[in-house]
Task: structure prediction
Amino acid sequence: MYRAWFSCFDGCCSEKWALTDVITRCPNGSLLDVSHDVSALGSRSAAAWMQLFDQRWMRSAWPFGSGVWGKLEWVYPTISHDSVVSFAEGGTNLLWAERYGASLGLRDLWVKQCGNSHTASFKDLGMTVLVSAVREMIRSGRGVRAVACASTGDTSAALSAYCAAAGLPCIVFLPRAKVSPEQLVQPMANGAVVMSLDTDFDGCMAVVQEVAKDGGIYLANSMNPLRIEGQKTIAVELVQQFDWEVPDVVIVPGGNLGNIYAFARGFELMESLGLIRKRPRLVCAQAHNANPLYRAYVNGWDRYEPIRAAPTAASAIQIGNPVSIHRAIKALRAFDGIVEEATEAELLNAAARADRTGMFCCPHTGVALAALEKLIAKGTITRDQRVVVVSTAHGLKFAQTKTAFHAGGLDGVDPTLRNMPVELPASVDAVKRAIDRLLPG
Ligand SMILES: *Cc1c(COP(=O)(O)O)cnc(C)c1O
Ligand SMILES: [Zn+2]
Result:
């Protein structure tokens, strides 16, 4: 009785396409949304939805134990359970950043650890939906020769894992020498065709869109709204983890900008079904070196221009021509949104400060934390507010960058945060002298 379909994002046409149709743009070239029959969903009360989601939460009944598929009716209501490819994604910890928050004067700061997942980034949430949907397409008789994506590292890791689990051929396009070794080895291990191109992410994106114009190669980038459907469940899960209370501010690092839109979609659906009554303020955090959205924001949304993104330690968001720019602007306008940026020094030092309180932050989470610190300094975020920072990848995926930070090999690093191993002979005396020298007091 619940239904969903593809619709045009710009509203330039009013057609509806089946979720099993192989289509990623409308006939006029606009991006697509997945639209839900909200009045059908509304025939179940808000309280009943919350109870259902809580019952399924992190249990084993297939496929509902997944944080995404536990909300199946809100994601892809008609999908056959046999088509679902899932690694039990979602259900990630929402940690109270007590000591780091206190250092900033915040009592109610939380970090949603979305990188604690199967391929170590939050891309798993959208990819489980996309690859499951491909299986559903194949079931319905469409031919799909391979699934392909351009990636700054995390999308390709997720796509190759889900394709391998489904037994589907996978092609990933990566900018040569611009992804971490930990990210690169994932599609290699999962048996994807790995294309390493002499360009940046935006160049890979242009190539894959051309390649996917030939029938049979299905495009898995986040311009595909099936990905957004999975990512939007983070917003639902977040509110669920606060016993269905809405935080005041949610900060998300942004690159291709599908995710900031996905958060808006998640909160909007909860609002229209009566699960929540207020909207959080959304903050999109960008690296200064890859900040086209920030520039448009400072211009009062008047003017948007793609840029050539410069290298950043936050390599997963080194994107100058984000596919979802207009989706992001729409989301931020509707959620009293803010865009903040962080320099390399700011993002690395913010991650290091959080690490000193027990976290282990990837550079993108560092961008979000730096944005938080700046918004507190400006008085935009205040001490009484409940703030959630979305941590998007596992810090271990960026071991090289983090090690270089501590080795002092990066510019603008706060020396008080560096910490290197002490190399000593195996002598008790030498060790005791070193302890006296290194411990405070
Ligand atoms: C993809 C990604 C982002 C940004 O998400 P977009 O939807 O592209 O804006 C942020 N952090 C990490 C680690 C990512 O992999
Ligand atoms: Zn259209």
Summary: The first strand starts at residue 4 and ends at 8. Residues 12 and 28 are 8 Å apart (CA to CA). The chain has a mean pLDDT of 97.
